[in-house]
Amino acid sequence: xxxxxxxxxxxxxxxxxxxxxxxxxxxxxxxxxxxxxxxxxxxxxxxxxxxxxxxxxxxxxxxxxxxxxxxxxxxxxxxxxxxxxxxxxxxxxxxxxxxxxxxxxxxxxxxxxxxxxxxxxxxxxxxxxxxxxxxxxxxxxxxxxxxxxxxxxxxxxxxxxxxxxxxxxxxxxxxxxxxxxxxxxxxxxxxxxxxxxxxxxxxxxxxxxxxxxxxxxxxxxxxxxxxxxxxxxxxxxxxxxxxxxxxxxxxxxxxxxxxxxxxxxxxxxxxxxxxxxxxxxxxxxxxxxxxxxxxxxxxxxxxxxxxxxxxxxxxxxxxxxxxxxxxxxxxxx
Length: 333
Hints:
Helix content: 40-55%
Order of helices and strands: HEHEHEHHHEHEEHEHEHHEHEEH
Number of strands: 11
Shape: globular
CATH architecture of the largest domain: 3-Layer(aba) Sandwich
Number of helices: 13
Strand content: 15-25%
Largest sheet: 6 strands, mixed
CATH topology of the largest domain: Rossmann fold
Distance between the termini: 25 Å
């Protein structure tokens, strides 16, 4: 069973309510039919109800069992607009602007989640990453003790030679271009939580990657990873985490014990934290293409309630998978 199949089974065990704000988007409409049929989650599309139904009819899709929420006709609209105004008035928000913003399905969805009327949100099929994540950062905000959002991929490697029976978590491959040491540390802690929650890795072993192992090279980029390692230990003293480590020292036991003797992580890592977005994005795509790994993601981590961003080139099945991921994240809160 693939890692995404395992995640779908977890999602089915306790159905969570996931919102899809891009309610008239064709792939999204096709996906919700599959999600309901497979019992993965309770789902609601947001938007004009007549337009959503007309698009579903055009696609030959049944919306039986699917919720439809029209923000402008919702009984909660005025309350949410007022709440948003109160949240943002110190930043120049006024009641009229707040009401206008609440007509945006992305912002309404986040208010619905904040008010405990839903458990998570998936969008991005037609919205940019910035547009998708912005309402989450303004309304949902980050999980306690974490100030930043990061993005990871679950890598399912077919030869099973590395990681947890071939499953690894790579971060940050999607969000922060040039992370600070604080952001790297938070990404490490959140990626370990993702490994536990989504991959069933009970003992995450986190490697903070660099072109240096334990001071073998001197550079400010190495110093940043070393600082991030120390800060991650402060955030979670019990987490098995080591750095800075070169990739071979993180993955190959003989190399790891030679370069970092006695390390519980070196040679056994199942969570890899890349020093920047360039290396993370390149790294996961190399493993995907050269090793034939399945790359599941990107998965957003760090929000107080789960929000996930789709690729605008996503398939119907991608949306189904990300809804399952979001549901399992919600289960584990």
